[in-house]
Amino acid sequence: MPADLVLLSARLLDPGTGRILPHTALAAERGRISFLGDDRDARAVAGPGTTVVDLRGAVVTAGLTDGHLHPVSGAERTMGVDLSGCRDLAAVRAALAEAARRLRPGTWLRGWGLDPNAFGTAPVGNAPLADVLDGVPALIDLFDAHSALASARALELAGVDGPRRFDQGSQIVCDADGRPTGLLLEDAACALVEAVAPRPTDAEIRTRAAEVLAAMAASGLTGGHAMDANGDSLGVYAALEAEGALPLRLRIAPWCPPEADDDAVAGLIGAQGTGGALWRVAGVKLFMDGTIDNGTAWLESPDCHGESGHAYWPDPRRYAQVIAALHRAGVPTATHAIGDAAVRHVLDSVERAQAGTAPTGTQAATVRTDTQAGTAPTGTQAETVRTDGPGTVRHRVEHIETVPDDTVGRFGPLGVAASMQPTHCCEFTRADHTDNWSRRLGEERAGRAFRCRDLWEAGARVVLGSDWPIAPYPPLQVMAGARHRRPADLSLPPHGPDQALTPLQALQGMTVNAAWAAGEEDRAGRIAVGHRADLTVLADDPLRMPDTELAGLPVVLTVVGGRVAYRSVRV
Fold first, then answer.
1. What is the number of other CB atoms lying within 10 angstroms of the CB of residue 309?
2. Can you say whether the dihedral through the CA atoms of 121, 124, 126, 131 is positive or negative?
3. Which of 88, 91, 185, 394 could disulfide-link to 171, CB 3.0 to 4.6 Å?
4. Given strand 64-69, what is the order of strands in its sheet?
5. What burial class does residue 314 get, using C-beta atoms within 10 Å of its C-beta: 0-12 exposed, 13-18 middle, 19+ buried?
6. Contact 460, 418 (CB under 8 A)
7. Cβ neighbours, 10 Å, residue 388
8. Any residues with CB less than 8 A from the CB of 331 and at least 6 apart, and which?
């Protein structure tokens, strides 16, 4: 049978070893690598319908996978004014004033990417923006997507005129007189204003998501671990795949909120394995805390403002029960845990679940396979969630921004993946600790920031990602940040250079380790016959590029399932 794809004149870089293989050609058939050898033999397996690409010495490696991103919800979130490049209030005010001038009277203004560091040492609030947003209903997402800033008019339309009590760790921030400052912390508070703000249509979201995913493919990504199924995300993935417009392979973890009862947990378990050829529900996402910048993280001791002292789950014991139920059902979990207390509780809960000593009270359901769900795509090989016993369910912790030594050493023995976003450290914190994140934590805890190298050397499987739209998604920028620990414009010195990863470690964080965390190391993350033909082709060897030049390395080609997803003019 002729191959579907043949790549010639290539340098084949296996991320498992970091070596260039002794072959110059690769062929793929039915979504898998079917041949490694020389150009002449590769041409022999090509047929009339085979896509043949002469790479002219470009480097082929296993497809780069973003370990944490939000494609559809991020596509919707980023449809407003981009404030991610605004470093001070003057820039924020100028961007919002320009956007407000273009609006019709009464039209809402949406923005995203607002960095609290733009406010300097002053608290985040709408007062410094009052004149440029006078009479304008505006809702602006802060960079962390855990908080928003609402204008006075937006608060008025939403009927938000004072503090309210929430079951979760949410808050309407108010001044000493009980008047809202405009800052809304966490989902429940943000939802009050979002409920009265207009939303884009389903068609607009789908169009924007297609644009984002195509740009992700052009940046070198072939896959991602999507950490939500919010809104109609699953429907968007299905529609894009039906249109042939889904250029990435996506593993999706729907959210389990604190208020989820046993039936809701059973529903999440039952959804496992559903999807299409390139997207699949596989895992569950939970939140143990919020963010340090907002004062909603869960720290062993509060921050300098007396905040970040509580879990996101009102009853952390309930979280442990849910983890145990999901573990028994063979469902991997990904828990957002930023503060040291949050990370410790997640690891404690996983350890108890593995030992079978977690609190009872939540019934486990059966994990649904593709065949049981009736959704295995025709003409493709169905792939199911790993359910080969409790000892092999792979849980993960997301973010892990500040943790002590004793916690670092627990990941490896527990088999818990450490999902890290190095560009969060690079872009939003500073080596001199003058940023909001560091000031809140204090010197000691800020000094143990984003411990990628320590976790790696302690035996943890470190998975790298962007958390887009929180930080930019180009994978070479993520890998570069992991290596040099500096902002993308290289304008500041490295923050924690001792925590930098080596070039090979950074590559493995988006290939080998991403596959391991997904339980797919037997079929993904390497250049080997039988592995998925998900490939990223670069103009040169990323392991030999200087750290500060890696982000600019041209992407030549991306291949997903043996089909070209992006092709540059170079080939």
1. 17
2. positive
3. 185
4. 64-69, 221-226, 249-252, 279-281
5. middle
6. yes
7. 9
8. 268, 269, 272, 283, 284, 367, 385, 393
pLDDT tens, per residue, the chain with 571 residues? 899 999 999 999 999 999 999 999 999 999 999 999 999 999 999 999 999 999 999 999 999 999 999 999 999 999 999 999 999 999 999 999 999 999 999 999 999 999 999 999 999 999 999 999 999 999 999 999 999 999 999 999 999 999 998 887 899 999 999 999 999 999 999 999 999 999 999 999 999 999 999 999 999 999 999 999 999 999 999 999 999 999 999 999 999 999 999 999 999 999 999 999 999 999 999 999 999 999 999 999 999 999 999 999 999 999 999 999 999 999 999 999 999 999 999 999 999 999 998 676 655 444 333 333 333 333 333 333 333 433 379 999 999 999 999 999 999 999 999 999 999 999 999 999 999 999 999 999 999 999 999 999 999 999 999 999 999 999 999 999 999 999 999 999 999 999 999 999 999 999 999 999 999 999 999 999 999 999 999 999 999 999 999 999 999 999 999 999 999 998 8
Q: Rounded to whole angstroms, how far apart are CA atoms 39 and 212?
A: 35
Q: Can you tell me the distance from the alpha carbon of 125 to that of 151, in angstroms, rounded to the nearest whole number?
A: 9
User: Cβ distance 308 to 338 under 8 Å?
Assistant: no
Sheet holding 284-287, edge to edge: 284-287, 333-337, 396-399, 417-420, 462-464
- 286 with 385: CB under 8 angstroms? no
CA distances from 404 to 299, 320, 371 (A): 11, 22, 44
At 8 the three-state DSSP class reads strand
Residue 400 CA to residue 421 CA, distance in Å, equals 9
Determine the number of helices (DSSP H) and then strands (DSSP E) in the chain.
20, 25
Backbone angles phi and psi of 292, in degrees to 5: -70, -40
Residue reference for tokens 């930080």: 471
**Nearest CA among 398, 449, 404 for reference residue 428:** 449
For 379-433, where are the alpha helices, taking DSSP H only? 405-408, 411-414, 422-428
Residue type, position 47, single letter: G
User: ω into residue 472 within 30 of 0, thus cis?
Assistant: no
Q: Which of 164, 158, 70, 74 is nearest to 108 (CA)?
A: 158
d(CA 557, CA 546): 21
SS (H, E, C) 55-75: CCCCEEEECEEEEEECHHHHH
- Is 542 in contact with 92 (CB distance < 8 Å)? no
Sign of the Cα torsion 517, 521, 523, 529 reads: positive
135-168: burial string, b at 16+ Cβ within 10 Å, e else:
ebbbbbbbbbbbbbbbbbbbbebbebeeeeebeb
Integer Cα distance of 130 and 136 in angstroms: 9
Nearest-angstrom CA–CA distance, 238 and 76:
17
Tokens of 466: 């962007």
Gap between the Cα atoms of 297 and 121, Å rounded? 19
